[in-house]
Specification:
Strand order of the largest sheet: 7-11-12-17-16-15-14-13
Mean pLDDT: 93
Number of domains: 2
Oligomer: single chain
Radius of gyration: 27 Å
CATH superfamily of the largest domain: Bira Bifunctional Protein, Domain 2
CATH class of the largest domain: Alpha Beta
Structural class: alpha+beta
Low-confidence stretches: none
CATH topology of the largest domain: BirA Bifunctional Protein, domain 2
Number of helices: 14
CATH architecture of the largest domain: 2-Layer Sandwich
Length: 466
Amino acid sequence: MGMEKITVRQLVENAEEYADHPVTVSGWIRNNRDQKEFGFIALSDGSHFNTLQVVYEKEHLTNYSQVARLGVGSAVTVSGRLALTPQARQPFEIKAAEVILEGDSPEDYPIQPKRHSREFLREVAHLRPRTNLFTALFRVRSLLAFAVHQFFQEKGFVCLHAPIITANDAEGAGEIFRVTTLDPKNPPLTEDGNIDYSEDFFGKKTNLTVSGQLEAEAFALAFKDVYTFGPTFRAENSNTPRHAAEFWMIEPEIAFADLQDNMDLAEEMIKYLITYLLDKAEVEMAFFNQFVDKGLLERLQGIVSAEFVRITYTEAVEALQKSKEKFEYPVGWGKDLQTEHERCLTEKIFHKPVFVTDYPGEIKAFYMRVNDDQKTVAAMDLLVPGVGEIIGGSQREERREVLVRRMADFNIHPEDLKWYLDLRKYGGVKHAGFGLGFERAIMYLSGVNNIRDVIPFPRTVNSCEF
RNA sequence: UCCUCAGUAGCUCAACGGCAGAGCGACCGGCUGUUAACCGGUAGGUUGCAGGUUCGAAUCCUGCCUGGGGAGCCA
């Protein structure tokens, strides 16, 4: 018969070409409605957000009664003629000549053709990619990962794979996961009774990375413009919709560049990612706009054409004090901005993304460059409505003696980061970079407000299923 | 880790001290164009776990477990 094996995506993009032609499509049943003499299957083959309507008729199928009883989730291969149906809700459908059962799905299949709560779907994370929301979300995640690489590669950045296991424990970026092969019941001990890590696999204490930044700095001082994009691990006991123990981070690092260049890059990147998704994920974004966040498309389109706000920490504190907003925690120079303050800035005062720069040195990391006022450092956070902080970055302290002094303030021993200080000793130049939480970007761009829903199999405190 | 809300049928929820219920889903039947189809019927329960109060507990009390939201930490 000469059936051509084909995907739903090919049909969506080129239906006319296949009109009245015999085609074969394999996929999973999303919904099956039978009547006396005919029935309809909504078939998803994963190639496109849309399902394909299969029409099957008693007089054309030898196994009609079997097909009519096929449950949601079953895998089938359908062969038949493609019919254009411009007057119907779907633009085309398959008139089935043959429906072959590839994999049955019994009646206790948990995903039903009805609304499910996100909490329930998290418990069946192995099946949830078969639902509309997660089909859309994980395709967007895939597209966004590609867009990140494309953005940097087009600009000539070099991608480096920073190590996932590291002995850098002096960064203060959060609680770490220890990596060890020692027997937890019977570890080797030193003479004074402590665990003897010189006996461990690497001969020293090691942990999973909390950031690829330090390694990226080394590469930036060779390639000038670099980025890392990889997994990151934090053992924080954080119970919020914005925190995970394992997440992915994008960390560009640029040499011969200052904080302004850094913000320019971050803003350009966010706009690029939005533009990319609006173009390449039109159906998915329209779905989010309709069922997740009604104002999503309008807001994202607005952001592409708007300039991000750039204010200093000092100006932010003044703006908050002037706002007459009632805060649970008082606003004051020297105190870190609370979540409620950040929300006020981005959701009530400016209604768009806001860079806050030049924070007091005491509340920021040791590697951030000290400003001329000696009180603030060249830090920048990007705050967005709904999600909060999605980017944290800074110009790095390139002056060796200033960096050593800062490290002393933070109780970091120079010998622990000798190689990092070397970068200032040999051809050190001003440089800057930032970290973008990949999942937070997905949340912001989809409107889905829980990080556990934008990670295929999320790892959070007390939860490591699948 | 702290504060707070909630765990009842496969799912979403009602019953709030006195017989365990509905919608959806599943199953069976009907229906000649459905599309979260529609119509009729059937099955489905250790009310998160452990203890306590009471003649009587899904309901009140205590502890624990799990999940949601808020805070802190941050991306």
